[in-house]
Fold these 4 entries.
Entry 1:
Amino acid sequence: MAIIIENRKFQVSIDYDQSVEQMVLAGGYQKVHKDVTSSNFPSKEKGKGAIEILILKSDNKSLTTEEILDEMASLDLQPITIRELLALGAKFVDLERSVGPIAAFGSSINRNAPCIPCIFRTKLGRHIDLMMNLKGDCWDKDLWRFAAVRR
């Protein structure tokens, strides 16, 4: 197994009918990528719900996106979407300070390459950004965390 689930689980309420823009405001992000919009990330889900989000990390090496998704599937997990990431960030405003940057592979847009939403923190505050994800690129094992829910 190349990926492990961290010990904490995060209970999150989510309103899938909220716009991405509303969810960004609720999270208090200081820097927002210009393409993080409802038009670029339309919701496939509707209504309100509660989910349990798990945070995963690599246990021994940097992994490609394909390896991460295969590992998630082997654990009967699926990656969270941008709306689930934003709901997580709104409820747990210091999470990325304690665990590091978090990527949500359940949503992506193509901007010359697939781009994956992620949240992280710098000296300038909280960020919601899009990370370019070229085939074969690895996610640094010491830096990145990945969020998922049970299928």
Entry 2:
Amino acid sequence: MSASSNVVLLAKYRAKLSRSMPAHPADDLSFMRPRRPKGGTEVVWWFVEGTGSYSADCAKGHQLAEEYLAYCAEHRTNGNIPLLGWIVNDMLVRCKEAGKLSGIEIGFLTSVNHSAMIGEAVNAHLEKQGRERL
């Protein structure tokens, strides 16, 4: 199969994707829940329960971050750009009584930050080679 026919196939595939209904994170991510108050629709962006064990909660946070990062990789849309901010906002609301983040939040944010650091390292490498950032 030639390169030009691969481009045509890819164009047909992309056209199919663009006509499909975009995914909503609350439908796909285990730590979100739709919240439907009277007169509107909202989402609980951070709906988690701790285990009582800091290390188990950290592990759970890492697992949820992997889920979030996989979702973001699969659904690279402008609508998902503010998603992390909404999640962190709900984390702060949830942690208001305790006055601190739990292991779930620490594990989640550590994993997301680690991924961001790797992404920036890749971008720095590309820039040194005179190539465009991702």
Entry 3:
Amino acid sequence: MQEPCTPQTVPLNAGLDFASSSSVSAAEWIDAACQMIATGRIVANQLAVHAKSFGLTEAEFRLLWLLRTICDQQSASRPPQLLNQKAMCERLGLSPAQISAVVERLRKEGLIVGQASATDRRQNVWQLTSSGQTLLETIVTKLASQPSAGQIPHSACKEDAA
């Protein structure tokens, strides 16, 4: 069995002023960014395969998971945080058209439900339904039962690519 990659920690210089930074060069930063992008694409493909087995696209699964994460972060002392479609676009890196299509499909499937925003009645805010929560629990259970689930293939490691 292959061992998963151990990610390297490379500080990302927010201002990209590499001349004054001795911790990371521009070439190291670019190399790290390229490795992260490649690894992200591999993981996204794996996620898409798991989502497809439940009739979901990767984007649909990611939106459901985002709503689940927000729900899990709520507490009795904090009011529920509901997301509008603009916030979904920002959090998932999808276009408004993509989010609109994903939201509509998940709504029709009964996995999410919308309601008018308390602060702006022109916008809807969205949350998981009990069916959506149950589907995610099923996906997590199935994924947890697979021995290789969640491992990044060695091909994503810099050492193996060289």
Entry 4:
Amino acid sequence: MLNADSIVHDRESRVVAVAVDKDHYRIVATEDIAQGQSILTIEGQVTGRPTMYSVQISETAHIDLDDAKLVDKYPERYLWRFLNHHCQPNSVLKGRDLAAVADIKAGEEVTFNYNANEYNIAAPFRCWCDAHDKTMVRLVRGYKYLSATERRQLADLVSPHVLRQAQRDQQPEA
């Protein structure tokens, strides 16, 4: 259940909100979300350069914040900025659209696997999700760095642009 102070949005179509627990931001469902249902659309500036906060949407493009100062003023435009990584996510990015890959209950955190959408993460980070043993240090760096086993486990969630980049990397240089 949601036990956080939520930033409430005035758009009636929102099925998620930003929740804050002790300076930890996360996206939570404000109502039940069915598998396959669209959750939100990534908005922001298209850029060719990945950053710590950008989201990869194609082989050469990322979406980034238009202006970092606007996140606090217009959080509903940048909900994606608060999406946390999970090794077994309940949503997936398809281009700019975030969709549920499992039923999500109201109050549940909405997560996605960064490795499924990012080929080479600009700012790698430690995974804190509950999908694996906490004694194992797991660094999230992007699909490029996954083992063959990890890639197979993620196969149903990987974005086409990431697969194309992986195929290109595997081809011998001419």
